Amino acid sequence: MKKLLTAITAILCLGFAGTAMAADPAVENGKLVKLDYTLTVNNQEIETSIGKKPLEFVVGDKSVIPGLENGLTGMHRGEEKLITVESKDAYGQVDPKAFKEFPKTSMPKGAEPKVGMVLQAQAPDGESFPATIAELKGDKVILDFNHPLAGKQLKFQVKVLDITQAPPVQAKPLVPAADVKK
Description:
CATH class of the largest domain: Alpha Beta
Structural class: alpha+beta
Order of helices and strands: HEEEHEEEEEE
Distance between the termini: 85 Å
CATH topology of the largest domain: Chitinase A, domain 3
Number of strands: 9
Oligomer: single chain
Shape: globular
Number of helices: 2
Helix content: 10-25%
C-alpha cells in the first residue's frame, strides 16, 4: 500500500511539473519579450541594459536584428545565454559603396575633423543617421555611412525577464469615402 501511494504521489508530481513547464511560455513569434542584455564586440562592452530599462520588443516585428531574435527563440523566463551574431545576421558586411567624399568645408562649423569622429548626417526626409570620418585627404573628408557595427561579430549576454502575449495591433480607423479627395 505504501509503495502504491508513493507511486501515485510521484505520478501526480510529474504531472504537475509537466503542466507547469507547458504553461511557461517560450520566446516565439508574436510574443512580447522583456530582457536584460550586454552587447560586446571584440571583448569590449558596447552597451548594456543592466541597471537601466530592459529591452522590450515583439518577436517578429523586425525591431531587433534577426540574429538576436533567432538566438532568443525557444528560451524561457529566467534563462540566460550568450548569443553570438555574425555580421550577416546583424548590420551586414561593410559596403564599400557607403564611403563618400565631401569637401572639408561641408563639415559642421567649428568642428575639427578627425578620423573616427562620428557625425550626425541628415537625409532629405529629415531622418538622421551616423556617419564616421574614415579618412582625411587634403581638403577632402571621406565619410563612412555604414552602420558602426557593420562587419562585426556581436555577442549578446542575455537574460529573459518576461514573456507575454503581445497586445493586438491597433488598426488605424478607415477614412469614410465621402472624405476622400479626388
